[in-house]
Specification:
It is built from four helices and seven strands. The chain has a seven-stranded antiparallel sheet. It has 148 residues and is α+β, with helices and mostly antiparallel strands. The chain is globular and about 45 Å long. The protein has one domain (7-139): Pnp Oxidase, Chain A. The chain has helices spanning 7-14, 53-60, 93-102, 135-139; strands at 19-24, 30-35, 38-40, 43-49, 63-69, 77-88, 116-127.
Length: 148
């Protein structure tokens, strides 16, 4: 079971904000990928294709870090650390949902034979400006709004 996320962190996940996934390569070096994200409650969700480097890394070591950066205020971000599990994305339903959120259209086709998966991250630790109260909540509101 993961930790509860702040309202500011949830707002970043719900917004059209890009994220950076960090996984660990077999030699211990970091591997990063820019990606789209969604959520289910306090769990972070994203999509990938089986066999890609990030998929192989997460299959071997489920510990990951994801940083989500506010597209309207790049100093507002949340870094989430936790562990992932993967399940098939039947009919590309989740990938299509993310494509509509970020691109406003259906996704381009995957390569023939590709197996798409939904990655679920259970958050164990959250850091960054969007984990704080007051200041972070102000950062995700419109400019000029009074602090809460």
């Amino acid at each position: 079971m993961g930790i509860p996320l702040s309202e500011a962190a949830l707002a970043l996940l719900d917004g059209k904000n890009y994220a950076v996934l960090a996984t660990v390569n077999p030699d211990g070096s970091p591997q990063t990928s820019v990606m789209w994200v969604g959520r289910d409650g306090d769990d972070l969700l994203f999509s990938t294709v089986a066999g890609r480097v990030k998929h192989r890394n997460m299959s071997r070591d489920p510990r990951v870090s994801v940083t989500v950066i506010d597209s309207a205020d790049q100093e507002n971000y949340v870094e989430l650390r936790g562990r992932v599990s993967m399940t098939p994305d039947v009919g590309r339903r989740f990938d299509t949902e993310l494509s509509w959120k970020y691109d406003g259209k259906d996704p381009e086709p995957d390569r023939p034979g590709a197996v798409r998966v939904v990655v679920r991250m259970v958050v164990e630790k959250a850091t960054g400006r969007a984990t704080l109260t007051g200041r972070a909540e102000k950062a995700v509101t419109d400019v000029g709004d009074p602090p809460r």
